[in-house]
Amino acid sequence: MALKAVHVSDVPNLDQVQENAALSLCSTRFTNICVNDHESGDHDVAFKFPKFVVMGHRGSGMNMLQSSDRRMKSIRENSILSFNSAAKLPLDFIEFDVQVTRDGYPVIFHDNLILTEDKGTIIEKRVTDLTLAEFLSYGPQKEAGNVGKTLFRKTKDGKIFEWKVEEDDPLCTLQEVFQKVDGTIGFNIELKFDDHIIYKQEEFEHILQAILKVVLEHAKDRPIMFSSFLPDAAQMMRKLQKKYPVFFLTNGGSEIYMDVRRNSLDEAIKVCMEGGLQGIVSEVKAIFRNPEAVKRIKESKLSIISYGQLNNVPEVVYVQHLMGIEGVIVDLVREITEAVSDFNNPAKAGVESRLFGKEGKLQLETLISAEFSADNLHLSTDFVVLHS
């Protein structure tokens, strides 16, 4: 696949990139990941991905119902169909969101609220207030002839869309995902909590124990990692188990929270070191705003991967690899896995000619502008144009 036309927003200046940085980008799956004893004692274990990893966001990519890009409405996100479709591609993990129903069942759903319509009125209910049966009554049904409640979705700006996709699939539980999704694909399990609720420690423990029970019973040899935006949830999961790595999710200051631990990459480092976590999952713009933090993260023996819409731009993924980022979570799974494969074959992709000069030195001016602001670092809805 040739990378002919890519819309790239501003990418910040990098102080230094090694001229001999290895182009070890690949997406062949590895069969196992684990945590290893860390000799320095800074935190209980250190972890490192064996190679640069690509993870499918909510499977084959999140749904953006307001987008004009059909790819963002192709397959229902966070579904068995989406996960298995992604697993057919050369990526390493799928990322998905887990919440626990009122009667204690871990289910896969991103939004805190689930919406349907009754006689022209939109009805909102909190996922965690529903029983499993109530949750599964939304959307397409497994049993032929059964009709579920029509799903709607509210965007951040308050607009409501009927949740229509080209290939639909029923809602599912965490246990079903383990049982029905290709066993070779890794799971990045996001522990989903509501930012507007203050949770007690016993609530965290009850929710996380329900999730952990399913994981320990069904994971077998599947690569697993946990992640969460809530510091206390991430640290609690680390206390409850030592088998799988736990990462702290942060947007690195793109939004400001009352909990200062969520407001910067340096605070994220503290959360990890204090809780014995293995790494950070950062919004990509936070990394570009503060590239020096990557060095501090590495010095702390922590892993770092990124998420965000900019990760759907192949050149942005490439620059992160040169910076030492260990992996990316992406929506355009097919395009990015193909691009990552092209990075290993510069003659095919034209990567060398675009990024390197005659002497083999990286021409950062092709990708990087000296200064940028949060306002102009954005990706439009139609954020990437890739031609095969």
From TrEMBL:
**InterPro entries in the record:** GDPD, GP_PDE_dom, PLC-like_Pdiesterase_TIM-brl
Biological processes per GO annotation:
glycerol metabolic process; glycerophospholipid catabolic process
Keyword match Cell wall biogenesis/degradation: no
Q: What's the protein here called? A: glycerophosphodiester phosphodiesterase
The organism's place on the tree of life at top rank? Eukaryota
Q: What is its EC number?
A: 3.1.4.46
Q: Does the keyword Hydrolase apply?
A: yes
What's the catalysed reaction?
a sn-glycero-3-phosphodiester + H2O = an alcohol + sn-glycerol 3-phosphate + H(+)
Q: Which UniProt keywords apply?
A: Glycerol metabolism, Hydrolase
* Pfam families noted in UniProt: GDPD
Q: Which family does it belong to?
A: Belongs to the glycerophosphoryl diester phosphodiesterase family.
Sequence ranges assigned to domain GP-PDE in this UniProt record: 52-340
MF terms from GO for this chain are: glycerophosphodiester phosphodiesterase activity
Organism for this UniProt entry: Ricinus communis
